[in-house]
Write a structure and sequence with these properties.
The chain has 554 residues and is an alpha/beta fold. It has helices at residues 14-52, 90-102, 173-180, 236-241, 294-303, 335-350, 369-381, 489-505, 518-530, 549-552; strands at 75-84, 111-116, 130-137, 148-151, 160-164, 186-197, 246-256, 276-277, 318-325, 332-334, 355-360, 362-363, 384-388, 424-430, 446-451, 455-459, 475-476, 482-486, 545-546. It is 25% helix and 20% strand. It starts with 13 loop residues before the first helix and ends with a helix.
Length: 554
């Protein structure tokens, strides 16, 4: 019988056997080496892939207020938002969730998938057709033998489905969205966009807390809180002298980093009962607390208590401000939380609270369809949104920023229909000489200018170093309350929000409700700016003018 392996049979020679075993040993050593090197080879290609597809979608611009720092991530890399069509059935949703469960992704860390239904308490970010999907780090208790659905009861809107997955690579957010959007039951799917505050570092000019602030000044007027004359101030002093100082029956929402509700210059005008936090969970040490300082500064511009012998005076001396927190210590917040904040304020309005405006001093370059829908719903409910133009120093007609670029009378990317008016007022900054500062955006949907340079306002005692890196820039009043000066369109927008408070306070019915409609308020603000032509805003704002409270309220 012919030997299959010559030299290995009983009659084979020793040299043949030695060659065979040496060859076999070589194959075994090579195989063992490849097995040992496989993780390193995989890591190399994983890193190569992650370098070509970054963890976050980034932009080349610098976030103003953070010189030298690259632009922060514009959306969360571990979350997506899905809106189902109104005709979508339970089976359609389950099909999409099964798709998400089966996706093989390319993320660096293994993650599991949690789907939170829209109407689950504070998790509500829109109608019941909208869900927020989060990709979480895999639990250590998760089995490594394949996907395992822990809970997937989707028969009620309040259900929670969580999918445990083994350690494996994941697709990018873009890849996941591409697959989800193909499903016929999905109306749209988008990332959970990230917004950043639009304030600058403190100005180097002298800071005046007690006595005056040019942003509320009038030309040639002495005020009860100290003399200051400035042609380009908001002319608030003149209307104060005419006893037009606002009303506690008028409410505004401040969607921001929260506010220091016990600040001596704010607490009389803060609606602490309705304050809400979508960044922290109830019971957290910092729940409903401003951990950044930005929201406290914005609140002071709108409504620091006036004529109380301390600190500053807001545009409105009497107002009820509702801080709604969605921005954290680092000055950023997510789209889903911003939309929840809008919807929360809309519900309060629908329950009878006289909310007339929402201040939005933050921005992203991403066109956020869900936020557009929220701004439209606010306008339909009678609430005007006031948006900061943002601080990139660009023409937003060419390089859009949102929500600044939204026009509710034209934009219909959410397919909810357009409104008869634009319920979103976008504000650029001007300085004390009437010039548009280099940081302020302009053009496009920017409608008017307002004071936004060296604006002194209320501040938390220990602001985030991202907002104020030098603690020596803080100013303390004799009662221990803190103030600071900031630049930014974040400061310009609340001057207009404060103006809306004064306007609404002048038109209250016997029940304390504002009789002006949102469309009326928007028209009055825009016509006011048209009547206050400002050379630096010619061609940079649609009205070519600035805020002038004396003309607005005459």
């Amino acid at each position: 019988m012919k030997e299959v392996f010559p030299g290995l049979g009983p009659g084979g020679d020793k040299n043949g056997r030695r060659k065979y075993f040496l060859g076999l040993l070589g194959i075994m050593v090579t195989a063992a080496a490849l097995v040992a090197l496989y993780p390193l080879i995989k890591l190399y290609w994983s890193e190569h892939e992650s370098n070509s597809k970054p963890k976050y979608a980034t932009r080349s611009f610098l976030v103003k207020g953070h010189p030298g720092r690259p632009g922060k991530a514009e959306y969360a890399d571990d979350q997506i938002i899905i809106q189902f069509k109104s005709s979508a059935k339970l089976a359609d949703r389950q099909r999409v969730f099964r798709l998400l469960e089966s996706i093989q992704t390319l993320a660096i860390k293994p993650r599991s998938i949690a789907v939170k239904a829209a109407s689950k308490g504070a998790e509500s970010i829109g109608s019941n057709d909208v869900v927020l999907v989060k990709f979480k780090p895999r639990s250590v208790s998760a089995k490594a033998d394949g996907p395992r659905v822990v809970e997937a009861s989707l028969s009620t809107p309040n259900s929670l489905a969580e999918v445990k997955r083994p350690a494996e690579e994941f697709k990018s957010v873009e890849g996941i969205l591409a697959e989800v959007r193909h499903d016929p039951s999905v109306f749209f799917a988008q990332p959970n966009y990230r917004y950043h505050i639009t304030a600058q570092y403190p100005a180097n000019d002298a800071l005046y807390v007690k006595g005056a602030s040019w942003g509320v000044a009038s030309a040639g007027t002495s005020t009860p809180i100290g003399p200051l004359s400035n042609l380009y101030g908001s002319e608030a002093e003149k209307v104060w002298l005419a006893n037009q100082t606002g009303s506690s029956k008028v409410f505004v929402g401040i969607i921001d980093s929260g506010a220091q509700m016990d600040h001596p210059d704010l607490k009389g005008n803060i609606d602490a009962r309705d304050a809400m936090d979508f960044y922290r969970t109830s019971g957290d040490t910092n729940y409903n607390k401003d951990e950044n300082g930005h929201g406290t500064h914005v609140a002071g511009i709108i409504g620091a208590v006036g004529n109380n012998g301390r600190g500053i005076a807001g545009v409105a001396w009497q107002v009820s401000m509702i801080p709604v927190k969605f921005i954290g210590p680092d000055g950023t917040g997510d789209s889903s939380d911003a939309v929840q904040a809008f919807n929360y304020l809309i519900r309060l309005r629908q329950k009878g609270l006289n909310i007339v405006a929402i201040n939005a001093s933050w921005a992203t370059p991403e066109n956020d369809t869900l936020l557009l829908a929220a701004i439209k719903n606010a306008a339909r409910a009678g609430i005007v949104t006031v948006s900061a133009a943002s601080n990139e120093g660009v023409d937003i007609g060419k390089q859009p920023m949102y929500p600044a670029n939204f026009d509710t009378s034209l934009d219909n990317s959410d397919q909810s229909g357009t409104l008869a008016f634009n319920g979103n007022i976008t504000v650029a900054a001007i300085d004390s000489t009437g010039q548009v500062p280099a940081f302020s955006n302009f053009g496009g949907t920017v409608e008017l200018g307002a004071p936004g340079v060296n604006i002194v306002s209320t501040m938390i005692p220990n602001p985030s170093p991202i907002l104020i890196p030098d603690p020596s820039a803080l100013i303390s009043d004799s009662d221990g309350s803190t103030y600071a000066a900031l630049d930014g369109t974040s400061m310009a927008a609340p001057f207009v929000t404060g103006a809306i408070v004064l306007l609404a306070s002048n038109h209250l019915d016997s029940s304390g409700n504002t009789i002006l409609k949102a469309q009326d308020i928007c028209s009055l603000i825009r016509n006011n700016a048209l009547a206050t032509a400002t050379p630096s805003l010619n061609g940079k704002a649609t009205t070519g003018g600035r805020l002038d409270l004396a003309k607005l309220l005459q």
